[in-house]
Structures are given as structure tokens and as C-alpha cells.
What we know:
The structure is a homodimer.
Chain A lengths: L6 H8 L3 H8 L7 H13 L6 H8 L4 E6 L5 H16 L3 E6 L4 H12 L5 E4 L3 H6 L3 H8 L4 E4 L9 E5 L1 H14 L5 E5 L5 H16 L9 E3 L6 H6 L11 E4 L3 H13 L9 E5 L3 H5 L5 E4 L2 H17 L9 E4 L2 E3 L6
Helix pairs in contact in A: 1-2, 2-3, 5-14, 9-10
Chain A binds a DNA duplex through helix 2 and helix 4.
Amino acid sequence: MKSKITLKDIAKELDVSTSTVSKALNDSHEISKETKERIKAYAKYYNYKPNTLALKLRSQKTSVIGVIIPEIVHHFFSTVLRGIEEFANSKGYNVMVCLSNGSLEKEQLSMDLLLEGSVDGILASVTHQTQQKKDYSHIQQLVDDKFPIVLFDNVVDDVRCDTLTINDEGGAFKATEYLIEKGCRRVALLAIPDFVKIGSLRKKGYLKALNKHAIEPDDDLIVVVEPNDNIHQKISTLFEDSNNYPDGIIASNGEIYASTAMQIAKDKGLSIPEDLSIITFTDSLISQYSSPPMTALVQHGFEMGKQAVELLINRIENTTSEVEYQRKVLSTNLKIRKSTR
Amino acid sequence: MKSKITLKDIAKELDVSTSTVSKALNDSHEISKETKERIKAYAKYYNYKPNTLALKLRSQKTSVIGVIIPEIVHHFFSTVLRGIEEFANSKGYNVMVCLSNGSLEKEQLSMDLLLEGSVDGILASVTHQTQQKKDYSHIQQLVDDKFPIVLFDNVVDDVRCDTLTINDEGGAFKATEYLIEKGCRRVALLAIPDFVKIGSLRKKGYLKALNKHAIEPDDDLIVVVEPNDNIHQKISTLFEDSNNYPDGIIASNGEIYASTAMQIAKDKGLSIPEDLSIITFTDSLISQYSSPPMTALVQHGFEMGKQAVELLINRIENTTSEVEYQRKVLSTNLKIRKSTR
DNA sequence: AGTTACTACGAAAATGTTTTCGTAATTTTG
DNA sequence: CAAAATTACGAAAACATTTTCGTAGTAACT
């Protein structure tokens, strides 16, 4: 790589001091108009660019935000990342991504790496494994050090820090109630294990809606899909008794499950939405392009990314005032398509 | 944020010089065993972590790779990014992402930003707009400066630098030939505009296969979908004459187009794959979860990310030997599903 | 005993900036 | 005309580290 020209080079060449050059390029009033012009012209001609590393060391500020997410090949997370990138950029920050790939260990490693001074703050969505093992020491440590951090989507309550979540309970409630109001009486839930916080919240919302409408919950209608399960087989249990099929399904664990359920139902000869209504939590291309297209709870990933950055930059730039941590909640929309009556 | 302990702090406290501390912590033979132990114990107790910024300034190395991609909410690109992240990490690099969002301007901005010393090298896939306007000055400038850069997927031939691409022509050829061998005689192509390099290459492969099997290309069977077109309407032109429907479709522009075509065909009463076979270029969830699941040319995104990083790190770390630039090509696989006979 | 070699450390330079402070020269003010 | 203020710049510190070189003291060799 071609080596770059530095302040010192310019100073030597123009026979002034480096401080003069620095001030001139920063338009300081201390420098005479003529000298400024001379220096600026020279700098421009030789395409001088200040060394970012030196600036960062000097200012003790990296202008980089670290993002730790479980996956990237994932519609929701990539949408959030898009929001993060766009908003961070507009505020003069760059984005560094670390993927934990669902492993607590990699999550910890990434945090270590990032907080070794490479970033000014961290945005993280913790993995399921972290929630399962309840090991938050790596996060707690950051908070204790007053290192700026914002958790989003998959958050942990036990750590006192800024968080930003989807209204999971409200969304599940809304979806369930919608199906009930459309006449469904046997609404099934494809559930995420309870140890995952969003899983238990969605289940809570589902049960609340049943309760409000005086429908007795039926354990057979709640199918918890664990990480290593055979999805098809597990969901098929809902369709074992042909006299007792569900007439509605909330796929709290996403489109793949919704899509699989739809396929199974079709194979059983059911029509959608006439015999069975399906709502999926999370809305991406599958739900839009399946046949019929699926009614979905849309989570505003872009907005979530944007607001997460907003919270974080606030933390980073207002270190003086000890603001109490915030817990923001984003609402979801029910996007009606053709998989519901 | 809690301020960190530095070498100088340790030195002062233990009444030695900073150089001694530095050497001790780096296990230099110059320091006596006792002194080393004293210093290490102190450093460990106070959780000393070297300041990354200082290290970077000193070594003139950021250990960061910049990635510029047009989109992130995109199965292929996010898969590539995943490969990049994983492999870069294993080599001690972090990844900074910049999204050009399809805009040449943002692409240029990102490059400026990154090359101002924030990263050791750049991995980029140029936007369609860049290809359309044929404005490669920002890339050429990097190459002229011998700044390490590798282009992948959407590359430009006019710039002499390392590139990594999918075998677009070969893939399209393979897909087209497969349909022909299965008995299709009117194979349509949903095409990307020619100014996009991968678009013209795929078309070339398509035509080559027709030619090999002595089938006269039919302009009516080639539908070029431009950025602002109504996709549904455009694809429908293939089904205007019921006596002359296509019996095969290659969706060179991806699954959304393939899926739309499939929907239109079904609406016209065609059965898939009996009346019409469809192959999509790019394989993600839509093709897997559509009904029927689609036969697809799978592009090995993860592998592409990995190899791109490999090329780049090679450039970064072997600055001495002036290696001629490399052009690598990755092959594609035809994943047979149910949308082809 | 005199030279050489080795041990264990410190001073200082170097990475490239910005910023504080000092000051000579000039200009303004009373 | 003396005092005060302003202008225009330079020296040096600071950010946190590594590394080169110098050296005092001791040990080893001839």
C-alpha cells in the first residue's frame, strides 16, 4: 500500500511546525490567512488524509458500534442490522458485527473482543443458550464498568441496562384474539421453550387471550418445538385425531413452522383459511410468497435497529449525567393476508 | 465508563519503567523472573487490558476488514457475510459492514470512510448502479494505491484486482440444459438487465445451452425485468398466448420472480412440474418452502465469503511480494426439488 | 587482572494527531 | 511613549503502547 502523507511531512516541507499545520487544516484563528492557504493547498495537492487511528487514540473515541447477534442469515436480524447501520452511519458511527451463532461462548468472546477498546458501545441480542444457562456475567461486567450497552429483542431482565423489545405478549394476544373473533375455538400454539424469554411472553399473551374469551386452554394444542426436534413430526401431533383438529394456529416461532404446519394441514386435506387459520410471528418472504400468503405479526425490525442505536448513542455521548436505564417496547402490527378467515 | 488501568499506572505503582512493564507482560527474556511475576500479578489483579487503539496506532494495523454490500436483508449476501465473519474471526480480524443500499454514492462514501485508515482491507460487491454508470474511479483509486481489496459476486472487469465470482454462465447453462434434457422445448428466461454483469453472463449461458441443443432462441421468451417494473405484469407477458405457453422457466433473477411466475402459471391452470418446470437462480427459504419446493441453482455463499476473506488476508499480509491479481470462480450446484420434471 | 559477555533494567523514540501554554513581534490603547 | 492587547506561531505534552539502544552491575573467561 502506498504510504500516506502525514502532518509531519507537510510541516517539514513547508518549514513550519506540525502544530501550525494541524491548526491550519482545522481552520484555527491562530493561523494567518496566508499560511492557512499555503498549507491547505499543499495538503490538498498531496491528498492529505488524517490518520484515523491517531485521531481515535487521541480522542479516546472509536466512533464504532459493536453489534452482537445470534444469526445473520435471518430476516429479522438482518433487518435490524440494516436499521442499525443506517442510523449509526447518519450519526457518524461505523458498525462492527459479531455473530454468536447461538453459542454463549462465542457471545462472551465477542464481548471481550469488542470491549477491549475497539468500540464505543455494544448492541446485543443474547442467544437462547445464554438465556438457558442464565449466565449473564459477561453482560453484568460491562454494566458494572458502566460500558455503554443496549440489549434488544432477546434481552435479560436480571441485568440493569437499556433494553428494547418487541411487545411479544401483546402481539401474541392480538393474534390469538383475532383468530377467536374470527370464530376459531381450537387455537393451537407452536411455542418456543419457556426458558427463552420471548417464548414465555408469547405463550402468556396467547393464554391471556384464551382466558379473556373464556376458552379453556388445552395442553394438546400447545406444541413446544425444541432445538433438535424434527419439526414436521412434532407439528404433526396436532393432526393426529381427525375429529379434533385445531381450527387456528399461532406460529410463535416463526414462518418455517407456520409453513410446515400449512403443508401438513394441506396434506390432510384441510383448506386454508376455511378449515384452518394460520398466523405467523415474524414476517418475511416465506409468508408473503407462500400459498396462500400468510397473515403475520410484523415486527418492525428496521425501527428496532434505529431506536436501539439511538438509545446507545445516548449512553455513549451523555456519560456525565447518570440516567436511569430505559426499557422500551415496540408494538407489532397484524398484517392480514389470506391464511386467516 | 470506568477508566482503565494503563502501563504507566502499573509502572508508577511498582516503581519500574513502562518499558519494563511492557516487556514483562510480553514475557521478554530481558526481565527477571521475579520482576515479571510481580508485574503480572499486579496486572492480573487490576484486570489490565492493553489499549487496542494504541496497539493499532503503533502497529499500523487495525485487524479489521471492511465489507461493502448492496443489501443485507438478502439471503445470499447475508450468507456470504456469515462466511466472511466466521473466517475473518478465525484469523484474528473483525468485520465492519457498510451497506450501499444500491446507491453508487453510498458505495463511494463507504469506501472513503473505510480507507481513511479504519480497515486493513476491503471486500466489496458493487451495486447495479455502479455497473450501469460504469463509474469505477473509487475502486480504481484503491487499486492504484495498492490498498488491499477483493471484489466478489458483482465485480468489475475493468479494474485489475482480485475477484471471486459465481460461475454464472456455467450455472445458467447447466440449468437450461437440464430442462432441455427433461424435454422442455420452450424454455423462458427471466433476465437481469445486461448492464449488470451477472445478468449478461447468465443470459449467455442460457443461450449457449439452447444453441447446443439446436433450439432457436425466441425473444418473446426472454423477459427482462427492470428495477421499477411491475413484476407480476411483466412476467404475465409469458402467458398471453395460451397456445404458446413456455414449458420451462429459468428465473435468473431469483426466487421472488420464480415464485411469482409459479403463482401466475398456477392461476392459469398449469400444473407444476407437469406443464411447466421452473428453476430458480439462488436458493433460500422461499424456494424450499414454496409448493412445490423449487429446483434451484445453489450458490455457495458461505464458501464465497470464506474464500474472499482468504484472498484478502493474503493481500494484506503479503504486501512485499507483488503477486498478480487472481480471478477465482465458484461453481454452482443444481438442487433438484419438485418444480422440475 | 583485564577483557568479554551477560543480565536486568531505563531512557527515549516512534506511531500521528490535537491542544495547551509560552512567547516574540506587532498593534492598539491611554 | 509606555503599557496592554493581539497576532502568529512553536515547543511540548498527551493519548498508550512497543522497541531500539544504552548502560550499570555482575559473572565468566583467558
